[in-house]
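EI: anyone free to look at a 193-residue chain?
SC: sure, send it
EI:
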Amino acid sequence: TTATTYLTTRRMWPVYRQALVILREHGLENDSGLYRLFHYVAGVAAVVEADAKNLVGVRSGAVAIHAGMVSIPGGLAKPGERMYVAGQRELREETGVGGAWQVGQSVMVRHPEAPSISFLDRVKTAESAVRETYEAKGKKYIWVPRADCLFPALRDGDMQPLVREFRRQGIDVPDTLKFAPDILEGLKRIYGF
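SC: here you go
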């Protein structure tokens, strides 16, 4: 069933990364064969905008992939769930932000360390209240100014404005803060960097 495939895939992700290492050690760059061995699970994420700000967070140190990296609200689609519905659900579960929102541009990015493709939807919302929820699992989301914090990181790789904003809002992050690679790629595509 699709539910069994979903759970099996989640358990196989650590093996996928090991298989990538073995391929690279043998000089093989084409990993498309792995995608036939492992099942896909679609990821979803919301590039949330309100006024001139974006909702971003830092992943928990306890997660298996991209611990402590900058991310946006998201997760995995459930079996049979439409992508935009999964995106709405994940956004609501992780931040409490829900209500009316408009979907704009969407992009698809391949996850570099798991057999997954993520769909990022650019959404606008009028709701600005962010709650810490159980589903966030240690992530903390904040609103950051797009032009002053997010764009320097995307355009020039300058993470320091983002680091300062996290710290200003009470989230301790290292000076070496980085974006989760699939999220970085998706954000660059959406904003044209």
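EI: Residues 2-25 form the longest helix (24 residues).
SC: 👍
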